[in-house]
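Researcher: Sequence recovery benchmark, item below. Answer with residues only.
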C-alpha cells in the first residue's frame, strides 16, 4: 500500500528545523509493510498546501500530514483542509474535554488560543491526542485516506503508534511484505566497495535492492526485499546477507542497523569494562556519541578534552619532552593520551585523538586532515595515522568513527 508524507512549515524549508518526522514515520511504515513513495515539504502557504494535498491524494492511497495545526495564526492546515475537502469547522466538546484534562494534569491555565484547538473540520473522524492539545483528523475520499497530525514529534509518534498505524493496518489489506537488513562495513571507500560488489548486485533477484549509505569512515549496506509473502522476503534477505558475509569477510562490523557507538556499548557491557576518552581535535565528539545512548553510564567513565598541550601534560600526564620533540599530532603523544585517560579516569580502556581538523593550521609535514588516533585496553595500546580531507566537521566525525572502530577491533581481539 502506497503512502505519501507531507510535512508543513516554513521552518522546514529555511532549515530552522530539521524534518525528523518523515524519517521516523518512514521507518515505522516500512516495518509494517507500507511503501512510502514520496516525501513532500511545503511552507505555510494555502495554495502550496492545496497543491500538495491534491497531488498526494492522486498518487497514494494514504497521505500522512504533519504540522501547521497549532493555535497561532501561521498554523493554517486545518482551514486549508476544510477548503480542500469542502467543509466547515465546528467546536468539539470531546476534544475540548481532552484539552482540559491535559491542562489540569500539568497545572497550566487555558487561554482562548488553546480553546480554539477544539475547533475541528466537519466531515472528518477526530482522533483524540493524549500527548498534546492539537487533535488528529482523519479524512476519506473515494477509498483514499488523508490523516493530519501535529508536527511536534512526541505527539506525532504517540498518535502514529497508538492510533494511526493500528487503524491503517485494519483498513488496508497488506499487499506487500517489506524486509530490510543493514550491514555496517569498514575498510572500503564507497567507490571501491561498489566495484567489489558489482557482480553481487547483478545477481540480485528483481525484488531485492541494495543501497549504499556512507558515513565518514564507515558504510551501511541496506538490503531491501519487496515480496508477496513474509516468508519470501525473509528468505531472500537471509540468503543475500550470507553472500555479503562471504564476499566481505571480516569487514562487516554488524548485520543489523546499529551505529558503531551502540556496538561499542554492547561489547563493553558484555565484557564488564569501562571506557574513557582523551580528545583533542574531536573536541568531545566521541564522548557525546557514546553518552547519547541510554544506559551508557554502565560502561562510560568520562572524558578529557585536552585541546591545549598544558591539559595534555598536566591532566593526562603526556611527557613535555614528547610534545616538544614530536608535536601534539604524533604517535608518541596520542598513545600517552590514551594510557593517561585510563590512569586518570580509572577505566579499563580508552581512545585518544590528536590532529589538525582544519581548515587552517596545517604544515607541509602535517597537512590539514592529519589525525593520530590511539586505542588502549589495560596496558596495551595501538595507534595509527590517518589523512582525511580538508572539511573540518567531516574530519572530526571521521576521526571519531575511526577511533571507535579501532577500539572495537581491540576489544574483539
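Model:
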Amino acid at each position: 500500500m502506497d503512502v505519501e508524507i507531507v510535512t508543513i512549515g516554513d521552518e522546514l524549508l529555511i532549515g530552522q528545523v530539521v524534518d525528523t518526522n518523515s524519517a521516523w514515520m518512514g521507518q515505522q511504515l516500512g516495518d509494517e509493510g507500507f511503501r512510502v513513495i514520496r516525501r513532500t515539504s511545503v511552507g505555510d502557504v494555502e495554495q502550496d498546501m492545496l497543491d500538495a494535498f491534491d497531488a498526494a491524494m492522486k498518487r497514494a492511497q494514504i497521505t500522512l500530514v504533519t504540522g501547521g495545526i497549532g493555535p497561532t495564526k501561521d498554523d493554517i492546515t486545518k482551514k486549508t483542509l476544510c477548503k480542500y475537502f469542502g467543509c466547515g469547522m465546528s467546536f468539539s466538546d470531546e476534544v475540548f474535554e481532552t484539552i482540559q484534562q491535559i491542562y489540569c494534569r500539568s497545572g497550566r491555565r487555558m487561554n482562548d488560543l488553546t480553546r480554539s484547538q477544539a475547533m475541528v473540520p466537519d466531515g472528518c473522524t477526530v482522533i483524540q491526542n493524549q500527548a498534546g492539545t492539537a487533535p488528529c483528523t482523519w479524512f476519506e475520499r473515494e477509498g483514499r485516506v488523508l490523516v493530519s497530525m501535529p508536527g511536534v514529534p512526541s505527539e506525532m509518534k504517540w498518535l502514529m503508534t497508538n492510533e494511526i498505524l493500528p487503524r491503517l493496518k485494519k483498513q488496508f489489506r497488506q499487499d506487500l511484505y517489506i524486509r530490510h537488513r543493514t550491514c555496517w562495513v569498514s575498510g572500503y571507500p564507497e567507490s571501491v566497495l561498489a566495484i567489489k560488489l558489482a557482480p553481487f548486485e547483478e545477481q540480485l533477484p528483481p525484488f531485492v535492492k541494495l543501497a549504499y549509505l556512507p558515513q565518514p569512515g564507515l558504510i551501511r549496506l541496506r538490503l531491501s526485499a519487496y515480496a508477496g509473502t513474509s516468508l519470501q522476503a525473509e528468505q531472500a534477505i537471509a540468503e543475500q546477507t550470507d553472500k555479503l558475509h562471504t564476499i566481505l569477510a571480516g569487514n562487516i562490523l554488524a548485520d543489523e542497523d546499529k551505529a558503531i557507538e551502540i556496538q561499542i556499548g554492547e561489547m563493553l557491557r558484555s565484557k564488564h569494562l569501562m571506557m574513557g576518552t582523551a580528545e583533542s581535535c574531536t573536541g568531545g565528539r566521541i564522548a557525546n556519541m557514546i553518552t547519547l545512548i541510554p544506559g551508557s553510564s554502565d560502561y562510560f567513565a568520562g572524558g578529557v578534552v585536552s585541546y591545549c598541550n598544558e591539559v595534555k601534560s598536566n591532566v593526562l600526564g603526556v611527557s613535555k619532552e614528547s610534545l616538544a620533540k614530536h608535536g601534539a599530532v604524533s604517535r608518541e603523544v596520542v598513545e600517552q593520551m590514551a594510557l593517561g585517560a585510563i590512569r586518570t579516569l580509572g577505566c579499563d580502556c580508552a581512545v585518544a585523538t590528536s590532529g589538525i581538523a582544519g581548515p587552517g593550521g596545517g604544515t607541509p609535514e602535517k597537512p590539514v586532515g592529519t589525525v593520530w588516533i590511539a586505542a588502549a585496553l589495560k596496558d596495551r595500546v595501538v595507534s595509527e595515522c590517518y589523512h582525511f580531507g580538508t572539511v573540518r566537521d567531516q574530519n572530526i566525525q571521521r576521526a571519531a568513527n575511526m577511533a571507535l572502530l579501532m577500539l572495537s577491533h581491540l576489544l574483539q581481539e
